[in-house]
């Protein structure tokens, strides 16, 4: 089997020794080409080229941002959309970031060596599954972009944008720093309120203060603690939507407590939540930050999120 291994050498938990062991293990059973990324969107470009060249398996070792790039490249390589995943290239993920939400969602161990062993066993046994993906389309710009587990406009995206600025200045992305940044952005949202309008099929427009979109449960993690917004969302049932109609302290604290509680199931009169949405549109009068799979992707005012079922085959 022809395969491409894409590794991000700057991912949080990768090491030179670990990358060498991973490459040697995969090369023992695959006709393997290895590439280390050097800049943003590098993984997308090489994954797209590999798929067009007939590669049957793309393995990615890195964080969720690198996984997102590879998935977008694979989808571009198939012509900009999903083909029959039974015959298209497959994806395998070896966790290398701080959260590794997608890898955990498909049931892989967090430890890179354990995940590599699981992938090798699955390749030997021919075990794969198909998953749905989300696609964001900015109605003011051409093209679209795929996401594997979550997206957002507003508060969460502002947090991620600030975290990227901090990382560019050499600060590490830790759960404590995420929490502190989220608090700072919450206070900013309280001082400068910006409403977002959500439009769902067969429903009147609704105003919220932010919009979280999930492609599966869990939405993300703070270290080992899951953050759950839409427990009913899954790779097979459409998108989950979560938002708050206001950011008053009582509303926000209640929602956060439920999102972080084991088995959390946030609801309430100030909560907008749907777990199986085929598509939704999110609009704002002013440009707001956007994020996909934990990466800041710019700002937008009018975007759509689509659920695309059975879009990608993954090794599990």
Could you characterize the architecture of this molecule?
The structure is a single chain. Helix 6 packs across helix 7. Strands 1, 2, 3, 4, 5, 6, 7, 8, 9, 10, 13, 14, 15 and 16 form a 14-stranded mixed beta sheet that branches. The chain starts with a strand and ends with a strand. 31% of the residues lie in helices and 34% in strands. It is globular and about 55 Å long. Strand 3, helix 3 and strand 4 (90-95) form a beta-alpha-beta unit. By secondary structure, the chain is an alpha+beta fold.
Task: Name the features.
alpha+beta, globular, 316 residues, 34% strand, 31% helix, 14-stranded mixed sheet, two-stranded antiparallel ribbon
Please provide the ordered H/E string of secondary-structure elements.
EHEHEHEHHEEEHHEEEEEEHEEE
Q: Give helix % range.
A: 25-40%
Roughly how many Å is the radius of gyration? 19 Å
**Overall body shape:** globular
Instruction: Decide which structural class fits the backbone.
Output: alpha+beta
Largest sheet: 14 strands, mixed
Q: So how many helices?
A: 8
β-strand percent reads 25-35%
Mean pLDDT: 93
Secondary structure layout plus pairing:
Layout: E1 2-7, H1 16-27, E2 31-36, H2 42-52, E3 57-62, H3 64-77, E4 90-95, H4 101-105, H5 112-125, E5 128-138, E6 144-147, E7 150-153, H6 155-168, H7 175-191, E8 196-199, E9 206-208, E10 211-214, E11 220-222, E12 225-227, E13 239-244, H8 249-260, E14 271-277, E15 279-292, E16 295-315
Parallel strand pairs: 1-2, 1-3, 3-4, 4-16
Antiparallel strand pairs: 5-6, 5-16, 7-10, 7-15, 8-9, 8-15, 10-13, 11-12, 13-14, 15-16
């Amino acid at each position: 089997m022809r395969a491409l291994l894409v590794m991000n050498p700057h991912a949080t938990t990768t090491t030179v020794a670990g990358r060498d062991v991973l490459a040697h293990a995969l090369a023992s059973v695959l006709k393997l080409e290895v590439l280390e990324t050097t800049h943003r969107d590098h993984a997308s470009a090489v994954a797209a080229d590999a798929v067009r060249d007939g590669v049957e398996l793309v393995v990615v070792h890195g964080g969720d941002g690198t996984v997102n790039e590879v998935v977008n490249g694979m989808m571009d390589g198939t012509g900009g959309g999903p083909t029959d995943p039974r015959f298209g290239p497959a994806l395998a993920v070896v966790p290398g970031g701080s959260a590794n939400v997608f890898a955990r969602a498909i049931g892989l161990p967090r430890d890179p060596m354990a995940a590599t062993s699981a992938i090798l066993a699955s390749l030997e046994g021919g075990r794969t599954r198909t998953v749905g993906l989300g696609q964001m389309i900015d109605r003011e710009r051409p093209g679209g972009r795929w996401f594997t587990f979550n997206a957002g406009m507003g508060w969460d995206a502002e947090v991620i944008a600030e975290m990227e600025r901090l990382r560019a200045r050499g600060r590490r992305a830790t759960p404590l720093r995420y929490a502190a940044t989220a608090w700072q952005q919450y206070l900013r949202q309280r001082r400068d309120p910006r409403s977002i309008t959500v439009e769902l099929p067969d429903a009147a427009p609704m105003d919220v203060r932010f919009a979280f979109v999930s492609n599966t449960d869990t939405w993300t993690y703070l270290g080992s603690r899951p953050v759950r917004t839409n427990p009913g969302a899954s790779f097979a049932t459409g998108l989950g939507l979560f938002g708050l109609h206001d950011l008053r302290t009582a509303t926000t604290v209640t929602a956060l407590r439920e999102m972080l509680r084991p088995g959390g199931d946030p609801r309430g009169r100030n909560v907008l939540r749907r777990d199986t949405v085929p598509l939704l549109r999110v609009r704002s009068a002013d440009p707001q930050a956007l994020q996909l799979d934990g990466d800041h992707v710019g700002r937008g005012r009018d975007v759509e999120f689509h659920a695309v079922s059975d879009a990608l085959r993954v090794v599990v």
